[in-house]
Amino acid sequence: MLGFDRISFDSNVMGGKACIRGMRITVSLILNLVANGMSAAEIIEAYPYLEQGDIQQAIQYAAWLTEETVHPLELATA
After folding, report:
1. pTM of this prediction?
2. Domain 7-65 classified CATH 1.10.10.10?
3. CA-CA to 70 of 20 to 30 Å: which in 2, 50, 52, 64?
4. Residue ranges per domain, the chain?
């Protein structure tokens, strides 16, 4: 996981979930706010200790997590 310098993991913070810069703000919280229509400016207004780069990197991290590879299954014949 290279290039995600704003995403942190600490088993003592939010149960080890992906957080922003060691704060108790999870990537999933940011994604839920964006998914429910909040703009980056609105999120920063609600959480003034966040930066635009934090929000952008949370979205990039989620996109990285969802990269898919499809592996066709061969069905067994009886």
Report:
1. 0.80
2. yes
3. 2
4. 7-65
